[in-house]
Amino acid sequence: MLKRASIIFLLFILTTSAFAATLKESKESYLVLSEKKNTHEKGKVKMTVFFDFFCPHCHQFDTVVVSILQREFGKKLKVTYIGFPIIYEDSVIPLEAFELAKDEGKGEEMKQAIFDAIYYQRKDGANRDVLLSLAKSLGLSEKFNKGLTSGIKKNTVLEGKDLAKSFGATSTPTVIIDGNVLIKDNSLATISSVINNILDKDGK
User: Fold this and answer.
1) Rounded to two decimals, what is the model's pTM?
2) What letter does residue 26 receive in the DSSP assignment?
3) Architecture (CATH level 2) of domain 2-91+152-202
C-alpha cells in the first residue's frame, strides 16, 4: 500500500500542475454541451461527479468543495457520484463496493469509509478484505459480501466509465451540472457561481 500511496501523491503533484496549465489556456470556466440534454428541474440543480477513489483530487473535492456546496444550497442541490476508474486497473474494485452499498442505502457511508481507509488509514482500497471489513462496520448484509466476491457490479462501474467518456471526461473529478454543463474549473467559486446563476434564472 505504501507504493500505491506514493504513486497517488506523485499523481496529485503532476495533475495539479497540468490542471493549472490547462486553466491558464482556457478562457471559459464551464462549457455547455449542445449535444447533451439539459435535465434541470426548477428550484433544484443536479450535480454529477465522476470520480476514482484513488484520485486525491476527488477526495479533496468531496471533503471540501461538495461539503461546502451542500451546506450552501441544501435541498436545492442534488449530488450524484458515478465511478470513473482511470487511475489503476483495479480502481474498479472499490467502485463496485460503492455500488453494492448504494443498493442497501449506504452508498454515502461507504464512499466516506473508502476515502478514509485510503487517505487517512493508508489501507489498500482495492483489497477485498479491507472492503469487506468496511462493509461489516457499516452493517451491510451478506448480499454485499457475495456481490463483491462475484464482481456483479463490474459492468455497472464500466457503464459509468463509458458515460463519463461521453461527456469528454479525461480526468477526475469531472463535474457535470444539470446534464449538459461541463465544469472546466472545479473551484468552489466557479461551481457556486454556476449554480447560483441557474437558480437565479428560476426566480425570474
Assistant:
1) 0.86
2) -
3) 3-Layer(aba) Sandwich (3.40)
